[in-house]
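cache lookup: miss for this entity combination. No prior model stored, computing from scratch. Input as submitted by user K.M.:
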Amino acid sequence: MMITGVRITIFLLFATTLTSLLLGTALAVMRVSGVKMLRAIGTLYVEVCRNIPALFWILFFYFVFPDLLPSRWGQILNGYQHYPIAAGILGLTVDNSSFVSDILRSGKLAIPDSQKEAAASLGLNSLQQWGYVMLPQMYRAVLPPLGTRMIHNFKNTSLCMAISVKELTWATQNIESLTFRGIESTTIATVFYIVACGIMVKIIIWLERYLKIDITSITKSRA
Amino acid sequence: MYFLEQFANWKFYLMGMYPEGELGGLLLNIQLAVVCLLLSFLAGLVLGYLRLSPRKFIRIPVGWYIDIVRSVPLLMIVFWFYFFLPYIMGEHITVFRSAAFSLFVYGSAYQAEIVRAGILAVPKGQMEAAMTIGLSKRLAMTYIIFPQAFKIMVPSFVSFFITLFKDTSIAYVIGIIELTQAGVIVSQRQPDRIYAAYLSVAIGFWVVSYSISRIENVLKKKFGTIEIAGIITGTKRV
């Protein structure tokens, strides 16, 4: 049970990291783009999603979302065996992507506009300008806070137990209620979380070294 | 009018069963967040200061405490306090207290990091200058370093308050009737009102944290935007 829990937790971690990076990047580009409409939508999304707890979003996608859809789709979703996991991923993505886009937007401010102009003068179209010139630099500039956010997101996966996703925290509670071995299982889970966070920190520090980020220079330039 | 009827439970969302029974709803969230913020601010000050202590046997255990608390999900901490603290201590504690304890422990570790980053953000020359004019280390800390550090910390504290406020929703899991739980209760009793229930919960959380984030923006402008987050994340991040 614990091993299934670990597997599902890790699956949730990878899935939500991927989806929220994608959605967050799209939102960040929307929010700094020249089109007023896109900017307004992006800002609205971020302001709404950032100020409401992740737990709410998870519950929302589990209980309310199937009802909002046309009734046939809703029934299919409710009947779907893995819907709790999908709802958890959706909820965490909504919560996390708003933070990601906010972080990326602050990264855009750290990069001079002349980069984009230079890219335009090389004849790249706007997709290429973002994809090849701006986004890599933005990611590099915001790697430390982005990493913190991803670790936070990893810890938030434990919230999925509220909708009975069978992940690690749920497993400990289930073991407690079945065998009264709660303390042992919770200790193991706690150790797992500590170790996993430690590994993530190591990976991010390694990435920083690899990309040769001088953190002090970035913080100074923004201050 | 039908639409408005959906929100007839607003009192329940706002303060639970308060005049007759226990306080609940949004006010409970705010109460939990404020109490835990203030208590964990004091603990965070002490811990953050000790983390910078020159003595190894103080610095290292405090560092461990902070790192461990920061890398465990809040939900795990809540479970530790809710299920196993009574078991270990052999005493029964109320649900509210166990939620408050866990938020306190969680908050103290984070605030210690903010305090540490704030103290480190004060230029080194300040300490040296204070030493030159003959202040002892303690005096220099209280009168020179700390006031400046505090100014730098204020926006981070406010943004941490938002985080803490949103995290009080986790008390839902151990059955405290706070805003999320209130919404779930209403939506279960009146399945036709499910949208209204969730919408009210969302509005409740959104209004409070959005208004605090406006205050945070004002404070940032007033105290300047020194990127504390970058410093925190730059040195040690969990």
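stored under new cache key. Chain B has one domain: 2-233.
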